[in-house]
Write a structure and sequence with these properties.
alpha/beta, Rossmann fold, 6-stranded mixed sheet, binds NADP nicotinamide-adenine-dinucleotide phosphate
Length: 263
Amino acid sequence: MKLFTIFGDPITHSRSPLMHNTVFTLHGISGCYTRTHLTDGKQLRNVFFAQCLNGANVTVPHKEVAFALCDEVRGIAQEIGAVNTLCREGDRLIGYNTDADGFIAAIQSFGFLSTALIIGAGGTAKALAIALRHKGITPTIVNRSSGRLDYFKRKGFETYTAQTLTPQSFNLIINTTSAGLSDQELPLPHSLLIPLLESAKGAVDVIYGKETPFLTMVKNASLPYKDGLDMLQEQGVLANALFIDHQLSHETIRNAIRQSFLY
Ligand SMILES: NC(=O)c1ccc[n+]([C@@H]2O[C@H](COP(=O)([O-])OP(=O)(O)OC[C@H]3O[C@@H](n4cnc5c(N)ncnc54)[C@H](OP(=O)(O)O)[C@@H]3O)[C@@H](O)[C@H]2O)c1
């Protein structure tokens, strides 16, 4: 049997075990996917090999540490500097980032987009900024503080803090902050969000499973919107395909993962 887990801190909320185990069960794949609560990210590689894992996902706050612990990083993850998916090849640890392409798959329903405003400057913002640029969509980054904007400046993105951003028009407004996750905060001041949403074509909050104050504002502005559920499912489809060496089509995996949310 192949063994998989998700590393994170906290981790009890993760839907990944249900998503991946449903694919395994429905399609007769001999696999088992668990959760691993990991507080010290530097131990990730040791724990991965000690548990004899074949693959893993990595979530907050270990994606950047995991990147550094890989023997090889493939695809867009090289540019992002963070991985959310690990596969074992012999005694080598290979890293990928499926958040990036998962997000792009999730926003297809918005149609043509040329610009986006990413609110937040953490690991998710990095993945989305690189992925959007690869798709020909120009992202601008705004964060409440300036420290984490250095990465984006080095990569040539236009960056602002909440204090320096003036209202401009962007096709898509994306909240990648954790504002609203376990509080009732908005990611930017209300007075700044109002004109941004008025001139946008759509909005996304990558948080899933609850309506954040940001999403409530988006709904009140009558904009097309998504929460983070589609992104979660799509990154899972791509990770699962890697775990099972592409034995099933993305469509088959997607259907099984969607089914897991009915339980
Ligand atoms: N749907 C999915 O599949 C999916 C995938 C990945 C992540 N996520 C979600 O994305 C969110 C961010 O994850 P991450 O890994 O990017 O986190 P992270 O690296 O810790 O970054 C968090 C960002 O949020 C900002 N922030 C935190 N609290 C804020 C507040 N009250 N107001 C304004 N800004 C605030 C931080 O600003 P400072 O720099 O000023 O601290 C930072 O820019 C999490 O909620 C996570 O669950 C969803």
